[in-house]
Amino acid sequence: MALDIVAGLTATQEGINRLKPAAEPLVTRLFRLVPDRALSQQVCPLPLPLLLLPLLLLPLPLPLQSATVVLATVAAAVKGELAAALADPAAAPSPCLPCINPHRTLCTAPALHARFIKKALAALVNLAQDDDARGAMVKLRAVSRVLEAIREKSCPHLHLLTMLLANLTVEEAACEELLQLGSGGMEGLNMALLLKIFITSAVTLDAPVPGPSSANGTSSSGGAGGAASPSAAAAAQPGSLASAAADADPCQHLGAVITNVTRLKKGREILLEPGRGLLQALAAQLAPGSSERRRRGCSAALRNCFMSAEADGTLDQIVSDEAVLARMLEPIAGGANADKDDNVREALAEAVAVLAAEPSGRGRDALLAVDADTKLHKGYEYEDHPGVCAAMEAAGRCFIKFGDDEDAEQRQTGGGRSCLQ
């Protein structure tokens, strides 16, 4: 009952605001419901009120009257269930729930307590949309806790873990923790793991984490993916969970994580590391068969890499991979393969425009080698989104200028290539 109340409150911004004064201790208690490798096999028959009693015993800073009302409501619900359980143990609402592990988490239990794990994660996903609550989670090193659950395969709700990670990595500090900056040889291992999961799951569309995935979760007023479209070097956030429980692709939210992490140089370097083929693997997920979240995440990550290529010294890796450039042009070239999502087309068009304007001309030459000018001209005829059109026009001006310069030097060869007008 108490966990239901908390999960319900986090489903709206008003409810989150009422919980803010107690955000840090509340987040701590919610994370104690998420299993990790410290789990033991002991099970203790405790009713739900006793399971949630530590949440009430913890001293909470509640300067706001609204927060007091919220916690009082939770307390009343728990006390009522506790009294009923003590008077008649047989009538306890949850007769066999796991006990609290002294090492910080719950003991392993069968599918019975998976429902409580899911409710706790749902509340954390919704709370992580709020700046203050998200900041509290980052201070508590929530990123490492989520990554541990993914790595150790200790939690059956991978879609909620990846949604939570996407919301957390809106904070730059969370991205730094994920990248393990300053940890020497450990740097980038977490990022490599997530990239492997994201890429391999695109082939199998099967979560690489075993366990049940059908417990009922909470829903919120916002849809997943309802946040504003990510701009270059801007954070992507999947939002709250309207249909997370029904996700057929639980790893698709890692696209937003990759977008967020590639705001940092180290994240881009890992993605562009020679010989690993990660750039091609992301570009391959721009195909129409991929989910919208995957295509958005991949296109935004590619844009981040392209916009910083010259400063990062990674331009050679980009211009030498014609397969990636050709795949990026397909969704913005019009026709049957044109992407239906404005955010995807805008991100790719902006990436092409930046590469075309690269001062040395190597980016423009690489694009011309895959007929980018012709493909953009065709796509421009069908395009009606202002942001996409502006990026295409910027790229077209670069191609036209190149054609004019070429004509001045070699007038005997005729006009330059056909470009956007």
Provide an overview of this structure.
- With about 425 residues, the chain is an all-alpha fold.
- The chain contains 22 helices and no strands.
- It comes from Monoraphidium neglectum.
- It holds the Pfam family DUF383.
- InterPro entries: ARM-type_fold (IPR016024), Hgh1 (IPR039717), Protein_HGH1_N (IPR007205).
- This is Protein HGH1 N-terminal domain-containing protein.
Features:
elongated; mainly alpha; 421 residues; Protein HGH1 N-terminal domain-containing protein; Hgh1; Protein_HGH1_N; ARM-type_fold
Summed up, what is this model?
The chain is an all-alpha fold and 421 residues long.
* Mean residue pLDDT: 75
In terms of DSSP E residues, the strand content is: under 5%
How do the helices and strands follow one another from N- to C-terminus?
Answer: HHHHHHHHHHHHHHHHHHHHHH
Q: How many H/I helices?
A: 22
Please outline the major beta sheet. none
Instruction: Determine the structural class based on helices, strands and strand pairing.
Output: mainly alpha
